[in-house]
């Protein structure tokens, strides 16, 4: 089978690898992968050879957003059937550590997450043509749901978790900084959660146009006019919740002035490695709550349900599909924010 394997920053190769020939375990499922989405973390690995503190130290099959079709099941599998379409949850928590037992599976001490260099040996990803996964990671989807939409469950889950971390936002004013795929999905999730007014900032026109298309009430091109947000920082701030999706240090800093006193800042985007100056005194005086948002847990199944039932329409974000053999071109396209939002690989 073909795999999309990273050997180091900028060194992405399509490798033919044999499939595992040992029998399936009783609770395992063999999946013919169909569609995989390129995530921001995949792009960080591709360009920089790392995501935050997670550096690539050995060949790594990339990818964690995937859908496919069940080809074979183990003797004890009951959740899915052969021929069924599934979305695959890339998270495999241990379900035994203290965080798992508290319902915080995304904080699992023994988490194995597809396409991640957090552990050594690395946890290989899903940009390959066949997968073997535990039944627990398979979420059935309707037979008529397009594989491209099913593969959007994972990034939507990230957005839903971010909005959960910002709650309550029903009837509130929300600022989302960064209009990439996650930022635009946060727009959809925040609107679904009942936000009264959504403002989105970015440095480019095309992502802002997409944010407006999927439901933002106001978009601000802050590269053209850095003063656009100044008025929102006066009088102890304006926004009830700021959801920071860019990872840009300046956006993280300005969030403190833009959030109203008693407001919430949720950090989704990974900032660059190194020291970040944060206006802690202002956050203290304004009694700002600063919350991290990392991956997701129950939100994956929520995301698949919302997509399958048409409650959240992610279709506008799908801008290009490439065959796995053109993975390098796909990654280059996904890097071009002026032309693309979500780029997927046909596996």
Brief sketch in words of this structure:
The protein is α/β, with parallel strands linked by helices and 347 residues long. The chain has helices at 40-48, 98-101, 147-150, 153-166, 181-192, 205-213, 249-258, 280-285, 299-308, 327-335, and strands at residues 2-8, 11-16, 28-37, 50-51, 54-55, 60-61, 65-73, 85-88, 91-92, 112-113, 130-134, 138-140, 173-177, 197-202, 218-221, 239-244, 259-267, 289-292, 318-323, 342-346. Helices cover 25% and strands 29% of the residues.
Write the layout of secondary structure elements.
Elements: E1 2-8, E2 11-16, E3 28-37, H1 40-48, E4 50-51, E5 54-55, E6 60-61, E7 65-73, E8 85-88, E9 91-92, H2 98-101, E10 112-113, E11 130-134, E12 138-140, H3 147-150, H4 153-166, E13 173-177, H5 181-192, E14 197-202, H6 205-213, E15 218-221, E16 239-244, H7 249-258, E17 259-267, H8 280-285, E18 289-292, H9 299-308, E19 318-323, H10 327-335, E20 342-346
Parallel strand pairs: 13-14, 13-16, 14-15, 16-17, 17-18, 19-20
Antiparallel strand pairs: 1-2, 1-6, 3-7, 3-11, 3-20, 4-5, 7-8, 8-12, 9-10
Helix pairs in contact: 4-5, 4-9
Keywords:
347 residues; alpha/beta; 7-stranded mixed beta sheet; 6-stranded parallel beta sheet; 10 helices; 25% helix; globular
Commentary on this structure:
The protein has ten helices and 20 strands. The chain is an alpha/beta fold.
Uncertain runs with pLDDT below 50, 5 residues or more?
Answer: none
Largest sheet, strands/sense/barrel: 7 strands, mixed
- Please report the number of helical segments: 10
Question: What class, by secondary structure content?
Answer: alpha/beta
CA distance, first residue to last residue? 10 Å
Helix-strand pattern: EEEHEEEEEEHEEEHHEHEHEEHEHEHEHE
The average pLDDT score comes to 95
Integer-rounded radius of gyration = 20 Å
> Helix coverage percent of residues?
25-40%
Strand content: 25-35%
What coarse outline follows from CA principal-axis ratios? globular
Number of strands: 20
